[in-house]
Amino acid sequence: MELTPAELTVLGLITERPQHGYDLEQVIEQRGIRQWTDIGFSSIYYLLTKLEKRGLLHVPEAPAAAKSRRVFHATTKGREVAARNALALVAEPRPISHPLLVGLANLPLLSEREYTQALRTRLAQIEARIAAIQAARQAQAPLPPAAREVFSYSLSLFEAERQWLAARVQVPDDEQN
């Protein structure tokens, strides 16, 4: 059973610890998960219901008088499916669909000046993202191993892009004015 990245992310967070939708929203926000996957606030409950119907999550019966939120737990099948999907994503390189590559493929449409300015703008935004990721990582220390690896990998990718961009936006001193 193959899971979408959003399904696997939600299922993985539930396997970390049983949670309800509001808890998931908090973790997704704190860890910056929306930076790398398509999980909107409104889709969390949709994904939880979908995973529950597929037998990957369950909600233990709460006492009749309790007015608590539904707390989702991963089933044995859910843990197995999540582990198989995660292993495949870690082990198997897949093509990366990146909008920047589409823009670069269309460079003949841009002037040299437009291209250089776009790179500078992107570099500033990448530097801001790096700072935000570092701050989020620090604010949540100590992190679970999975979150620590996500932050580490994300920072590595952004650092590599920052290095690539910095090499391209260098201009002689007389052109900087």
List its salient traits:
disordered C terminus; two-stranded antiparallel sheet; 7 helices; 177 residues; mainly alpha; elongated
Plain-language structure description:
- The protein is about 60% helix and about 0% strand.
- With about 180 residues, it is an all-alpha fold.
- It has a two-stranded antiparallel sheet.
- The longest helix has 28 residues, at about 110-140.
- The protein is elongated.
- The N and C termini lie far apart (about 55 Å).
- Mean pLDDT is about 90; it is low at about 170-175.
Summarize the structure.
The chain is an all-alpha fold. It is built from seven helices and two strands.
Let me know the largest β-sheet. Answer: 2 strands, antiparallel
Number of distinct helices = 7
Helix-residue proportion: 55-70%
**How many strand units?**
2
Give unreliable regions as ranges. 172-177
Percent of residues in beta strands?
A: under 5%
How far the N terminus sits from the C terminus, by CA atoms, comes to 57 Å
**What structural category characterises the helix and strand content?**
mainly alpha
Q: What topology, given as strand order, has the largest sheet?
A: 1-2
Average residue-wise pLDDT: 89
Gross morphology = elongated
User: SSE order, as H and E?
Assistant: HHHEEHHHH
Radius of gyration: 21 Å
